[in-house]
Amino acid sequence: MTISPAAQRILQEVFGYTAFRGKQQAIIEHVATGGDALVLMPTGGGKSLCYQLPALLRPGVAIVISPLIALMQDQVEALTQLGVQAEFLNSSLDANAARAVSSRLLQGELKLLYVAPERLLTNSFLNLLERLQAQHGLALFAIDEAHCVSQWGHDFRPEYRKLTVLHQRFPSVPRIALTATADAPTRAEIVERLALENAQQFIASFDRPNICYRVAIKRNPRQQLQTFLETEHAHDAGIIYCLSRKKVEETAAWLQTRGWDALPYHAGLDATTRHQHQRRFLREEGIIMVATVAFGMGIDKPNVRFVAHLDLPKSMESYYQETGRGGRDGLPATAWMVYGLGDVVSLRQMMDAGDAPEERKLVERQKLDALLGFCESTTCRHQTILRYFGEAHPGDCGQCDNCLNPVETWDATEAARMALSCVYRCGQRFGTGHLIDVLLGKQTAQVEKFQHQRLSTYGIGKALTAQQWSSVYRQLVATGVLQVQMEAFGRLSLTEAARPILRGEQRVFLRHDAQPAKPVTSRPER
Ligand code: ADP
Ligand code: ZN
User: Fold this and answer.
1) CA 351 from chain center: how many Å?
2) Name one GO molecular function term (predicted).
3) I need a labelling partner for 360 at 20 to 30 A (CA). Which of 5, 144, 281, 399 fits?
């Protein structure tokens, strides 16, 4: 059965698009013909269409499970404007409004219903679904933000794990799970937790070729920001992220005094102000939103021309998500960031002060390290980002800062060999903290316990400080020479790429920031 002509027609006539993007067409055909699917696509990739269009192709109503109330509202509003009968059911509706939605459902008037997971899982709702199925049919189940099943993620939602009930009670209804979280462990967890073993997986590239990434050391951040805005984005809409509410307010006020159309946004502002600022950002031209991470989720503005970070985000995932809000229309956009070691200190303090369990904190620290490694890396930014998400990229995009202006580096071949052989000698079972203690010849309880003072790498790294060794390790991780096991106490192990370096067949150049005070001349160790 071919559904392409009908899909094409709806794409143009209902959604007003001329062509499918990426894998949208294949996904839509698969789901519309009754297949289960797992869709991994970066934010802005066009996931919604992957279930909205099949919903219109199949008889009955499509049930969309979403954890975000604000997002449901936006989507329903947008669909209604396109003339599609859609509603949502969540805690923001009072009893009367909810009843009105249920009655529209039962009359078979709706094509899409957005529902929060806890509502879906109630007995009364599941019974309602059975009646619907008998009377009008169920077009499909779409499970949005499917990574919420993962307890390692930041958005863990226990109810998501109970969604297998859909498969058990409605085995004939196709399911499509969607997420922008790309890493393989999360993907495996989604498949297992949602019983999607037989689903076809559609994995889009996470590359955002139209985003130009730039990272600089923080010197005079306001001046740096001002220059960036003036020279590159004088009339553009953009987002500036800051770590704290106070800094958001101060930065927005400062920009205003300089004549910029800047508005603050953070969770401490009252709802009316937040809503008003968001509306202005979406509807007016050239507004700069100065915000904490509270801003952005579900914001769909295609022509954001820049995303600036005045403080480090807490992980590569956050950095990717936040910068990903730029250039959704496919036109060039800049991701600009300044960072300093002060940022790292305050982020670590925040993490340490949090009430997360110890192992969770450890994962958070490693995620921050991975981001730092990215900042410090000397190779193509696109390549480093994609490597983190397990995807290959040829590198040399020709437009990121590292491709355009090769950074000043020092020949770190000897230091890299020391760092790598220390990993190897210690049995590939330790994190950076201990490895650096060994390189510096420290006498710690751990060193005693494992008798590491006997290793040939013990104390050979005294030419570098602990901070410099940290940077060496981070850069070796960022370039894929070492890999870190987040869930195993940050153990470092060698990859294939370490071999030629250890054998002395390949030289290593690292960013100047990590240059040793005196040259490293000790005999290399194999
Ligand atoms: P995601 O949910 O993956 O973050 P969305 O579904 O919100 O992405 O889509 C992102 C943007 O891309 C929206 O502005 C949407 O209207 C637009 N879009 C999606 N599919 C297409 C298409 N085939 N052609 C043009 N624009 C599209
Ligand atoms: Zn590049």
Assistant:
1) 18
2) 3'-5' DNA helicase activity
3) 144
